[in-house]
Amino acid sequence: MEKYSWVNFLKELSIQILNFKKDHSGLLGKLKEVKIIKDKFDAEKYKNWKNIEPFSFISILLSHSSIKKRTIIFESVKNIFKIKSEVPTDWEGVVIRNKQNAWFLSNEYESEEDENIDLLWNLFELTVNYNEKVKNKEKYEKMFSDLLFKAKGIKNTYKSITFGLFWINPLNLLPLQKNIISFLKKGYNALNDELKDDYLDQIFDNKSEEYIINLILNEQEGYLKFNKKVERIIKYTRFINFLNLSSISYDNNTTKNENIRKRNENDLNKIKKTQNIFEFNKNIIFYGVPGTGKTFNALELVKDHLNNKKDNVLNITFHQSYSYEEFIEGLRAKIKNGSVEYIVEPGIFKDFCKKAEKSNDDYFLIIDEINRGNISKIFGELITLIEDSKREKFKIKLPYSKEDFTVPKNLYIIGTMNTSDRSITSLDVALRRRFNFIEFKPRYDLLKDFHLKDINISELLRTINDRIEILYDKDHIIGHSYFLDIKNATDLSEDEKFFKIKNIFKANIIPLLQDYFYDDFEKIALILGDQFKEQKDQQFFIKKEFDKDIFNSQYEFDDKNIYEINENAFDNPLSYKKIYEK
Q1: 289 has a pLDDT exceeding 80
Q2: Where do the H-state alpha helices sit in 273-306?
Q3: How far is the CA of 67 from the CAs of 63, 64, 71, 260, 439, in angstroms?
Q4: Measured between alpha carbons, how far is 398 from 25 in angstroms, rounded to an integer?
Q5: Can you list the domains of the chain with their CATH numbers?
Q6: Which of 375, 444, 474 is nearest to 415 (CA)?
Q7: DSSP 387
Q8: Which of 182, 57, 43 is nearest to 128 (CA)?
């Protein structure tokens, strides 16, 4: 199922609706042709109508909560308007008004002419025709803000107009809905103080979501100003863009907090099946703790998108000594006729861009450990060119070759980063601004059926992570991938799988905990539940006994707990089970 499939359909439908700006009776006639709606159409009530505006037209189509009925409606719309886009297969993120409030106006539809209807048509037209190529963006935004501000005169409607604006342009215009504002407040409050904004501080300081919406719309250019500010800070929250925010907040409004937690854990599984994610994002960073499948999912996502065209994918890894010369271009020394001469040699990124320019296919650069490189040093002046709006429009003269260089639109960059190495807030600001971020969390659901020697592996990992988060932070918890291969190994016996679990604890998990907690064995023992285990042979860390006279009896020293690893504990299934059992 294609995610956000309604976006392209409504965009194309909006263009068709615009043809009826001077033919309102014609648009009313189209509405009466639509299946299901025509059966419910109250001919007596609407017989005197002479007018209709576009927002109500779309609102009526969306107002049926039954997905089955909505599909029938939009199949009918596709045929009536000869829409080329496929009928939407999902409605995730779309905001709707219920049937009782589907019409945006009241008695205006019976008039030959009405200024409110004209106002909504003009606002609709301006929104449909807006794109990144608008020549005078400042003039456009002024006209848009003036029209929206005039909509204040439409009683009980102008707030919902933002729903209609979102239907037409969901990537740039946010619907002002209470649950969306609530989600934004939470995400904003969790940001580092350095990322915050005086304007949004003022907005979000007001407690009531209703009051916040009024505050935004009561300012002459408040709505666009709010959108721009939110767009800037949204990438530092767990959302990708306005569409993602709307879908998550909509889920929260209808399925409660427990389902949201499950949705977050399954985000990437859904994204992996989504082909149009790249329509909205050319620069993405998959971030999270080690062992959550960031690189694997990046490769799988690209593989699905390209239908296994391996030549269109380049996978590299950043490190501390990675340089501009390797990535873009640099001077290389060559010996010719016994003397040294320097030639300009293109780097990996420049070569890959040139390759993409010559093709109509999509190309993907996957950068592992993107946070380990010095971004300013590696990208240099080209960091600006990777922005979606700058692709192919801006050129920069390269310092060595003096060539004009641009980044093609069909080249996508996916970075991966471990938050245990470095948090998002510590990333280069220029990088943060130009990438969308998708968080990977441990997928306990993938391990829920994995029981070994009566050990519930999912509960084992969840308990360890809960304790790490309390004693350290959430950026250092442990991913599910450490155990997933063992679960899926159908050729291994139970004893062989248990042997692998022992090795993971010995070679991976315990060394990781020692690194995180600087060999504070008491904290590590607390995470592994050793303090709660009555049997010593189940404890991974035990106090080491030593002879106090080792320095001779005349030397006095304070009592000190010294711990050592108990090798026998790894062989006992109860050592693992007692980590989570109370």
Answers
A1: yes
A2: 277-280, 294-306
A3: 10, 8, 6, 21, 29
A4: 58
A5: 6-173 (no CATH), 281-440 (3.40.50.300), 444-580 (no CATH)
A6: 375
A7: S
A8: 57
**Residues 540 and 460: beta-carbon distance below 8 Å:** no
Closest to 81 measured CA to CA, from 40, 27, 4: 27
Distances (CA, A) of 396 to 342, 407, 542: 22, 10, 62
Calpha distance 98→46 (Å, rounded): 19
Q: What is the DSSP string of 243-254?
A: HHHHHHHHHHHH
Which of 416, 564, 419 shows the shortest CA–CA distance to 478?
419
Tell me the one-letter amino acid at 559.
Answer: D
Of the pLDDT bands very low, low, confident and very high (cuts 50, 70, 90), residue 552 is low
Residue 162: strand pairing partners = none
Q: How far apart are CA 377 and CA 397, in angstroms?
A: 17
- b/e burial code for range 95-126 (CB count within 10 A of at least 16 → b): bbbeeeebbbbeebbeeeebebbebbbbbbbb
Using H for helix, E for strand and C for coil, what is the string for 536-559? HHHCCEEECCCCHHHHCCCCCCCC
pLDDT-derived band at 309 (thresholds 50, 70, 90) equals confident
Q: What pLDDT is attached to residue 204?
A: 78
Q: 463-482: string of b/e by CB count within 10 Å (b at 16+)?
A: bbbebbeebbeebbbbbbbb
Going by their DSSP bridges, the two strands 396-397 and 404-405 should be labelled as antiparallel
Query: Is-above-0.90 flag for pTM?
Result: no
CA nearest 176: which of 213, 123, 220, 224?
213
| Average pLDDT of the chain to the nearest whole number | 81
Torsion of CA 148, 153, 158, 159, to 10 degrees: 110
Amino acid residing at 133: K
Give pLDDT tens digits for 129-178: 876 556 677 888 888 888 888 887 776 676 788 888 989 988 888 888 87
With tokens 């666009």, the residue in question is: 224
pLDDT on residue 243: 63
Indicate the SS3 state at residue 354: helix
Structure confidence at residue 505 as a pLDDT band (50, 70, 90): very high
Q: What does residue 10 show for φ and ψ, rounded to 5 degrees?
A: -65, -30
Element (H, E) at 78: helix 67-81
Check whether 489 has a pLDDT greater than 50: yes
Helix axes 457-471, 481-488, angle to 10 degrees: 180
Give the pLDDT confidence score for residue 557 in this predicted structure.
57
Phi, psi of 461 (to 5 degrees): -65, -45
37 in Cβ contact with 73 (< 8 Å) = yes
**pLDDT exceeds 90 at position 80:** yes
Question: In terms of Cα–Cα distance, which of 442, 446, 476 is closest to 462?
Answer: 442
Residue in the structure block whose two tokens are 């093709």: 359
The C-alpha torsion from 274 through 275 and 281 to 283, rounded to 10°, is 100
State the average pLDDT over residues 526-545: 88
Question: What is the end-to-end Cα distance of the chain in Å, rounded?
Answer: 42
Residue 107 identity: N
What's the Cα-to-Cα distance from 142 to each of 103, 146, 148, 265, 429, rounded to whole Å?
27, 6, 10, 42, 30
